[in-house]
Amino acid sequence: MRIALFITCVNDLLFAQTGQAVVRILERLGHQVDFPAEQTCCGQMHANSGYRDEAIGLAERFVRTFQRYDAVVAPSGSCVAMVRESYPRLIGGAVPPVYELSELLVDVLGVTDLGARFPHRVTYHPTCHGLRMLRLGDRPLRLLRAVRDLELVELPGAEECCGFGGTFALKNADVSAAVLADKCAAVRRTGAEYVTAADNSCLMHIAGGLSRADSATKAIHYAEILAHE
Amino acid sequence: MSNPIAAPRPFPAAAHDKLADRQLRANLHRATHTIRDKRLRVVAELPDWQRLREAGSALKADAMSRLPDLLTQFEAAATGAGATVHWARDAAEACAVVADLVRAAGATEVVKVKSMATQEIGLNEALEAAGIAATETDLAELIVQLAEDTPSHILVPAIHYNRTQIRDLFRTRMAGAPADLTDDPPALAEAARRHLRAKFLSATVGISGANFAVAETGSLVVVESEGNGRMCLTLPQTLISVVGIEKVVPTFRDLEVFLQLLPRSSTGERMNPYTSIWTGVTPGDGPENVHIVLVDNGRTTTLADPVGRQALHCIRCSACLNVCPVYERVGGHAYGSVYPGPIGAILSPQLTGEGFNRTLPYASTLCGACYDACPVRINIPEVLVHLRQTGPHPRAERAGMRAMSWLMSDRRRYAAALRAARRGAAPLRLVARRAAKRRGSVPSEGDQRETVRRLPWPLSAWTASRDAPLPAGPTFREWWEKEHGRS
Fold first, then answer.
1. Is there a contact between A195 and A187 (Cβ–Cβ < 8 Å)?
2. Is A193 in the B-facing interface, judged by CB distances under 8 Å?
3. N or C: less crowded end of chain A, CB within 10 Å?
4. B451-484: string of b/e by CB count within 10 Å (b at 16+)?
5. Which CATH number fits the domain that encloses residue B68?
């Protein structure tokens, strides 16, 4: 199967280790991963901030870059939702088959146990786009439950937004911080060492709040947990 | 008079002030979570809930697609049944029509059923200017009126008050309230009931809105919980109903869908206690003079936008408010319109056009909880993003977005920009490391992630309350090129 990795702009610059984890997971399963170097950004930030023309240019570029692949995987629920849900409205036509990592693993490749081991207490935040746009459901949880020595603790009010919202975090910084404070309090109540999710943007937000409060809880993309041996 | 649906200042500034009110946030948290949980419980009881939502959405889309025909059909049917139909282009026209009707009835006092349309047009203030005293008879609206405040929620307008605050208000401002009134909810309700009873019995004019207007029969429908509405709709000789033109539904049978969707979504009840339906005048039974004021007030303009028009499908249940992470923190007043929350953020700016309302579509994280909760499946995030296209876009932001899309439209430019960003962060990493040392925080083994506590504008808005990550090492594409070669 020809699987292409769409790394996303945020991960490319700030979270290379998440992309490396995805490559490791898929190669360990015996798949060849391509990284088309023409890829840049899906245009989500432009589209959601009201810059439609700029977003259209980036969307068309994305389709050109990935149209020859059987499957495109991205370690970001919101970028996958952008391509799958918003591209048809934005540019029409067919969209490459893009999967969030847990969709690819569980639905397409039919695996949940990746042989990982992660001896830590972990809580899972189902990000808004993963929860309400992609309807990832328990896919990431099924993958995490199969990890050896991982203690999964439920996050109170898990389905509530962390307050990130892209440029919302800057344009309405005070409200964003108020929503974040409640999310961080919920994370801390779990006593988890790690908070994990399917999106590094939300995790960056939660981690920023935890770190500011000098909390020892760290944020980690679940791909990195699945790649851990 | 200020426009009740036009924000007097930008949302971020208004929200900033509301966030400082800890009592407000505690009241809002408790109230929204209570209704939210009730709604989830009763919605889960219906196996066909999703299909009901689809039906509600389809019925509204159909009604909006032939609104002019349905409105004239409604007018003919209502007139035929003895009602008088008036048309108002805007708030001022609607208020003038109502004031004239009250004067013609020889009244100086009116009793009111809770109605968003009359809030929207600022009717109480207009009547007061015309020397007519309007009394709100819905308990929460009465609280807001006594406090000389404005509603902060579509369904629960006094959601920002707790019972102690309400007790104090009744004691000082409500005629006839017992001096030893406690904050026990039944005692508060009883005091309000006694106060209102006298008004119901003496009023000769009642004023209402309507949840639905049935084109086929010319009937109006009011859905309520307290029975105050039933009193206002049946006791006075004259009844005046102010109805937004989008409230029209094609047939009586369509109510079957909406009367299931509305109570479960709004109060979390299987069925609301009182549903009043009336068709013109019934001699010997209820009001002898029935007037209906159909109000446009920006709806026709909204209807012309193929994406934005779905805001007109709203049945004012306020489920979207109760699940919204933004509304829960700031409350309704921050939106500066009687339509707050997610639905307000797409409705108010469309109804008014220019002004600070244009900051409202940005008052959302696009988390999608509102879309999931909406009983008529209004895709609120889609409309929010759609409305953001017309701005306002600050000049620096526009320049930044354009520069970024220029960088992102070429592989080499993009790779160079990532490299530059990573290298540019190097001095920040040094600063971060020193600061961490000063704080005495030692990075755990294997954790090479440095965070920074302060960044220059515009990212200072981020670091005001959050630390920011710095690139830990090579970008992903640098790593890939090294490991896998150029692709």
1. yes
2. no
3. C
4. bbbebeeeeebbbebbbbbbbbeebbbbbbbeee
5. 3.40.50.10420
* Residue B273 CB coordination number (10 Å): 14
Interface contact A180-B371, CB threshold 8 A: no
Residues 329-368 in B contacting A (C-alpha not used; CB under 8 Å): 329-330, 362-368
Task: For A119-141, write each residue's pLDDT tens digit.
Answer: 999 999 999 999 999 999 999 99
Chain A residues lying within 8 Å of B326, measured CB to CB? 172, 175, 179
Q: To 5 degrees, how large is the angle CA A170–CA A172–CA A173?
A: 60
A193 and A95, same structural domain? no
DSSP B175-205: TT--TT--S-HHHHHHHHHHHHHHHHHH-SE
For residue A218, the 8-state DSSP code is E
In a 3-state reduction of DSSP, which class is residue B382?
helix
**Candidates B372, B390, B422; nearest CB to A13:** B422
**Chain B contact set for A51 (CB, 8 A):** 389, 393, 398, 401-402, 405
- Is A91 within a domain? yes
Give the pTM.
Answer: 0.95
- Domain final position from A50, A74, A108: A108
Find where tokens 């799958």 sit. A84
3-class SS of residue A124: strand
Note the pLDDT tens digit of each residue in B336-351.
Answer: 999 999 999 999 999 9
Q: Do B487 and A165 touch (CB under 8 A)?
A: no
Q: Residue B487 has what pLDDT?
A: 57
- Check if the interface score ipTM surpasses 0.90: yes
Boundary of a domain, candidates A108, A141, A160: A108
- Structural domain containing residue B190: 11-300
- What is the total count of domains within chain A? 2
Of B325, B363, B389, the CB nearest to A50: B389
- Reduce the DSSP state of residue A50 to 3 states and report it: coil
Cα B77 to the chain's mean position, in Å?
Answer: 31
